[in-house]
Amino acid sequence: MEQSELRQRLVDTLPELKKVVAGGVAGCVSKTAVAPLSRVTVLMQVQSMRPHKFSDGKNPNNQYLWASLRKIYLEEGIAGFWRGNAATCLHRFPYTSFTFYANAAAREALERHGGLPEKVCTFHPLDVIKTRLMAQTRREYYSGVPDAARKICRDEGARGLYRGIGVSLCSTTPSIAINFTAFEEFKSLFSKLGLEPGVALSLCSGACAGSFASIVMFPLDLVRRQMQMVGVGGRPLVYANVRQAIRSVFITGVRRRRGCPLWWLLGPCHHVLYAEPADQQEMVRGGALVPGLMP
Fold it and tell me: What's 141's DSSP letter?
């Protein structure tokens, strides 16, 4: 291949590479920005599986947002708010890169051929590791991403890295559909209300879409997180299957009726997620927005 031809191929590939990088950076920035809220959400979602952590032996330690944030600060310091964020970014970068790129490719394919390319990509093991790291408090079992991966494989076998994948697969498709559809609907609504195209429109539309999708998908997300905590440290399995997990979550919810709604987190998360690519894509595509999602 001639050098000029190779150079031309690299030039042609650059815009596509920018789309991928923009999506990945947006995912990392958005999750890092709301990491303290994400940490509290995970702690609240999995605490019913750790009754030995209850200070009074009966009631969960993390029942309210501000009290939980204060507890993390007092016990772990500022760094505690970002515990597990490295695993989050490792998971988010390829996940959101693919999501943004696939969304753009799907739009172009639909415009050209009326068809939709089908691609499947999963980074579930990193999601499990992220949940395990974020669920730790003062007593650490996993010291980092590599250590967590090694110990999970040692204690639970390779299947431990795929805890809750069934629930994840069942929730991914509707979550993506709701996110993208809601984003376009809110974008159209705010445009009709007089909001000009730009970052502000993307911020409002993304925040509302993320909050709406999270409200709808929160029950499945709760079950997924609890399934990911099954078998920690080689302990006996709390749930034998998803049916048991759903039943336990329902009974616990009816009994307690407390928790941190994930949409409190995903509102600001989607503010950043949808706005960040908008700025970057304006340089790449002359202002065209490629929305993404953050389940």
Answer: S
- Condensed to tens digits (0 to 9), the pLDDT of residues 226-268 reads 888 888 888 888 887 888 888 887 777 655 544 444 444 544 4
Q: What's the CA gap between 186 and 209, in Å, rounded?
A: 7
Q: At what angle do helices 199-228 and 124-135 cross, to 10 degrees?
A: 80
Whose CA is closest to 229, among 133, 90, 86? 133
Closest CA to 267 of 183, 209, 211: 211
Q: How far is Cα 79 from Cα 83, in angstroms, rounded to an integer? A: 7
Nearest to 83 by CA among 20, 30, 129, 21: 129
CA-CA-CA-CA torsion sign (189, 195, 199, 203): negative
CA distance linking residue 266 with residue 294, whole number of Å: 8
Residue whose C-alpha is closest to residue 61's, from 140, 128, 135, 127: 135
Let me know: does 129 contact 152? Beta carbons within 8 Å: yes
Cα angle 227-123-41, degrees, rounded to a multiple of 5: 45
**What is the separation, in whole angstroms, between the first and last Cα of the chain?**
43
Q: How many CA atoms lie within 13 A of 86 on its CB side?
A: 10
For residue 194, the 8-state DSSP code is: T
Per residue in 275-294, pLDDT (tens digit) is 444 444 443 343 333 333 33
pTM: 0.65
Who's near 214: CB < 8 A, 6+ residues apart? 221, 261, 262, 263, 265, 266
What one-letter code names the amino acid at 162? Answer: Y
CA angle, 180 then 295 then 194, to 5°: 40
- Structure token pair of residue 18: 């920018």
Q: CA-CA distance, 95 to 20, in Å (whole number)?
A: 10
C-alpha dist (Å) from residue 226 to 25, 50, 111, 246, 295: 28, 10, 41, 10, 16
